[in-house]
Amino acid sequence: MSAIDPDALRFSAYPLARPPDRQRTVHASGIALAVYEWGAIDAPPLLLVHGAFDFARTFDVFAPLLADAGYRVVSYDQRGHGDSEHAALYSWVADERDMLAVADSITRAPMVAVGHSKGGSLLVHTIQALPHRFTRFVSIDGLPFRSPHPDSAMHERKSMTADIITDWLDDRRSAAGRVRKPGTLEDLARRRAKMNPRLSHEWLCYLVTRGAQHDAEGWRWKIDPALRPGGFGPFRSRWMTDRLPGFPVPMLALFGTLREPMGWDANPDKLAPYFPPSTQVEVMQDTGHFIHIERPRETAALIVDFLRR
Amino acid sequence: MTEFIYHNRVRLALHKLSDGAGHPLLLLHGLGEHSPATLPLPFAGWPGPVHALDFTGHGASDIPPGGGYSCEFLMADADSALAHLGAATVAGRGLGAYVGLLLAGARPRQVRGMILLDGPGLAGGGTPAKNPYIPVVDATWRGPPDPYAIADLATDARPPEYASNYAMLAAQNSDLERPIAVCTREVPEWLQATMDLLSLERIGVDEALQDYATPPS
What we know:
The structure holds two protein chains of two kinds.
Chain A: H1 6-10, E1 22-28, E2 31-38, E3 45-49, H2 62-68, E4 72-76, H3 92-106, E5 111-116, H4 118-129, E6 134-140, H5 162-173, H6 185-192, H7 201-211, E7 212-215, E8 218-221, H8 238-241, E9 251-255, H9 268-271, E10 280-283, H10 291-294, H11 296-308
Helix pairs in contact in A: 2-11, 6-7
Chain B: E1 2-7, E2 10-18, E3 25-28, E4 50-53, H1 71-85, E5 88-93, H2 95-106, E6 111-117, H3 147-155, H4 160-173, E7 180-182, H5 189-198, H6 205-213
Parallel strand pairs in B: 3-4, 3-5, 5-6, 6-7
Antiparallel strand pairs in B: 1-2, 2-4
Helix pairs in contact in B: 1-2, 2-4, 4-5
């Protein structure tokens, strides 16, 4: 046991942040997933899915707003993230099966789903595959979009150039035994600010108390050190974009206007030709990728209004 | 003799099927298969040592929980074997042929020729990309082979041009005159795309082995 860092107490609260009302574990294909719930257990369920390199407790301000509007908000840490188990294998489909295992643990009846960033894209694909499991979908800057032109596949940002492939393989060779770099609580917050440049230092410090752990050498993010940002492989976002016109449930698509490192480069004008006519598109001005963290009340109000219509 | 090597957290079985002087030959099995127990006849004349790798979830290699298999992960399995053996000629059956082709593009100087052979999983992903599909797995059978490996790798959506891009990298960056040897009779879309792109013709296994056994002058 290491000594308790005084910073942990200093940053363990944040205005309007509320810890989950319930926590439990779901075993998905043998991987233990940490699940968190806000709101009455008999309220209508709402599945809330975080993005890449995030974790469910990043919803500590946002989720209670939805819970207070009358929903049982259920979120979880994706494999390798937050308090969920680190895995040997990570893939899009594995993440989707994990998400369905969490959904199964709530109900087999169709439910509302809200996803941020990668969480939104996981949901888009899952709802396209299993439309009978969902009633409505909210994307918080969670719709991937890169050029839909088929010939552009090899020219996208994540295309398979020799350098990218070698870099990925070299990373795999060196992944064994890797650990996250330790630092003070505020060091970790400053590091995260590179991915989250628009979020306040105080908020990022609060996230460290939830998403990192303290040992004799300092704080380290809990996320699996074998994970690295960015996709690798043939999966193309346009496979989902092409099928959006037939999207099977009502959709609210939220966008910011400011580009950020973790963003998807998606914008509503480019996606407009793909949306079904019923799609409600909302653009939050002067807002980055983390819309629900920058503007939690307005985001929650839009969602609640969409769900009640 | 079986050695165990690691790909991050996964322990992989690397079987030595024969000794010899010269650079090694690495065999990659097909989907749901495992390495042969003895040296298969077509490779009996290989002058160097012959090794065979069990991919993650197959044969005597670990079956990690939770699924999430991809051809890229298996390519990194095979790359772990290359890191252990040094430069090698690679011969793959079915899925192992597809994975080996990726590896030939990724490590063009360390793959001393890639021999593509018929075998299970050769189609390189069975589900058309535009049909979203999440395979449900019968987890009551743990394997080997891992049922998640069968489900994930058989449905792993991949467009034909993805493989041919790797083949192009092999052609551009290998110092071999013919870094890819197509020895299959079945020609799935990805292989046709590769053969068209590089103007490849099918050749016999014996010819390919003879070609790669001789170091370039």
